[in-house]
Amino acid sequence: MSTVTIQIGPHKKSVPFTGELSLSSITAPYGLPMPCGGHHTCGKCKVKAFGSLSPLTSEEERLLTPQEIADGVRMACSAVATGDCTVILPDKDHRQGEVLLDGTQAQVEAEGWGIAVDIGTTTIAVYACHGGKIVRGAGELNAQSVHGADVITRIGAKRHEELHQIVVSQLEELFVRALGSDAAPADVKKIVITGNTTMLHFLAGYDPSPIAVSPFTPQSLFGETMPASRYFTAYENAELYLPPCISAYVGADMVCAMTASHMTETGGTVLLADIGTNGEMGLYHNGKLYTCSTAAGPALEGACIHMGMAAAPGAIDRVTLGQDRELLWHTIGEQPPKGLCGSGLISLMARLVETGQLDETGALEDPEEAPDDSGEDCVPIGDSGVFLTQQDVRQVQLAKAAICAGILTMLEECSLSAGDVDTFYICGGFGSYIDPHAAAVIGLFPKELENKVKVLGNAAGSGAVMMLSQLYRDTAAKLREEAKLIELSTSPVFMEQYIEQMCFES
After folding, report:
1. Domain residue limits at 67
2. pTM passes above 0.70
């Protein structure tokens, strides 16, 4: 029998095992990020480890610097404990980050205590409500990230039962935090949980595998009510409502966002986009509702970027130009720079386009060699010590092209141009923090939409709060019934636009 000692700050825990044990299985309960889902490609699951361990893998030799190797840094997805060893995790909770709780919300009539939840791929937001009004919110990074940064990677992990347990346990903790001392679980009468179709599958314990392969058939599109005790035993007096999804990739979160925006109740042509790992969009024109989704991937939220990170203290969230057009940076919490979050990434890319350091093909002009011995071409962000690599640029190109092409395809479906849109709503954690001008500069959306942007914040969460009332559940059901789905995967217009939108216009 061997023992792994897990050390977090002054705290230690011993884990006995026989044979061999992957470090990823040890670190998973602590929420250590693993954006690539353990495929040894992102290099973000770094820990310090000493003792009886497997030799360095070729992936570790490629992704770790000589100094990191000398300091005992290993990749949890690659290293294996073969005997007694110690694993040192950073003295912090990996689930803590900037979670968007604010949103636009109508007054709703709902008696007693209720809980509304938005399970995002990246973050989870929970709201404790009384009488239809939010009393307190709580949020964290989604702990399922230990099995990948995006839904496809998590589905590919083939661990839906474990992912079910992760999200249920995390929600139980967040419920308690949101309720505080104001109410007990027995006081809660209604719970509404929204999310994309895959997130709701994980919550319900369903196997989401069919969502990942053609013809993309989910096990359920939800829109149902059940006893909350089915998943949360302490909430025996509450009903649980899961809002309806429109398709495998246009989920209940989009239905909730459209409900919160009232986009189908106002005149004119209205576009709504939830820009994140899965870009979901809705277009309302001449009394008809169109929806689509496009796989932007996690790059826009920093997950697959060389020095990318969550929106947490120390993340560069804004880049500006100085008098001599040098790159100036700002970090969340005014902390020393550690990496780039999504809003900082978009801001930086825009500055590079404006200064000509990034040409129309996405090639860096006069790049430097990365200082971490990776050999990558890069551009440093002033004196921050943080840099952007050429490969990072390519990841953003793929993501921004997918979002913009999705928007243009939907517009063409209605014989519209971007200039015909009256209002462009942006919602979601990433979308609500980006600078619309920077986003337009890099081509995340057509430039004609920049001055029509209205930010809704966490509209999915706001819609979930509204659905504590039966009135808005009826609205959700109507939206699902009326929505026309545009399948981008089979659209020649989308493929043509996708290739065209890869370029940057200076």
Report:
1. 2-89
2. yes
